[in-house]
Amino acid sequence: MIKRIIIIITLIGLSFVLLPLFLNMEDAERLSELSQTYVTEGAEELGTANLVTAVVVSYRGLDTLGEVAVLFAATAGVTLLLGTKKKGGSVTDLLEERRGGSELLNTGAALLFPVLLLFGAYIFVHGHLTPGGGFQGGVVIASAFVLLLFIESDREFSHSVLHSLEALSGAAYVLIGLIGLWFAAGFLDPRFLPSGEIGRLLSAGAIPLIYSLIGIKVGSELIGVVDSLRRRS
Amino acid sequence: MITQLLIILGAALILVGFWGVLTRKHIVKIIISFSILDTGIHLIMVGIGYIKDGSAPIIDQEMPVSRLAGNVVDPIPSALVLTAIVIGVAVTALMLSYAVQLYTFYKTVSIEQIKELKW
To answer: How near does any CA of chain A get to the CA of B40, in Å?
Structure first.
């Protein structure tokens, strides 16, 4: 009882913390000065049609590198926790034998798998033009592999391929950042390649390259996470 | 108006998530509550970046470079939320793997029966 009262008081307190945010917030009439600069000069400077990508990959590129590092650390943690082969016994020890996928699932997954791969690649290659980018595309690709695991839960993915894809794309990302340091204005500056015409696939300097590498890295990392979680179940 | 709507929806999700974290006993339900809480925070962050009658900050025929200023929403909160979503996925995966480890060790998913976690 006393626990419940404490919880209710905590929630009421939290809603009072959030209340001023609600009361003092009107729809902004214009952008802040920094965003104004990003919006008006981003297209001209970098040649990206999608300005969110310009912020993610170039203006805040270091943040994105840190984010990729956090994702890598989390993947390493998951692998460390679950990677050891069935030491503490399997989760499904108590459950009965697993059924195979139904006909509908098997056919649907086989049909969707190549389409999802293609769609994921499309999303990260077009990250500088349309909504989307490396993270979203990587997740779509990982979901294609999750679908494969639904059909056949014992399927083994090649860990050496996954790990080398992940390591190579991560290293290439940092390398592109360093090339930017030498040939353009600074670390992760994509302007060492020609920026081209806005709206073309081959435009915006190295941004499509960086986002594709992020897509491959995120995709292989998430497949690794799902695979580690699956191997213990 | 839309900012306020997004903030109130986000605040509701934050409260639901927090309530779930505080009251649920099933460890997977706690993790789901964390995801709901995350989503509420993302919604508030996106709401703060909204500009009146703003469109997505993407250049196309309808939105040439000359029209950009004043007609698009703030790209910075969108980029931050993109980051936050990915970090959220990473943290959820880590929490789930802890849950798997706890289950294999204690053979239970109820936090009430895991006495070492009591404070």
So the answer is: 12
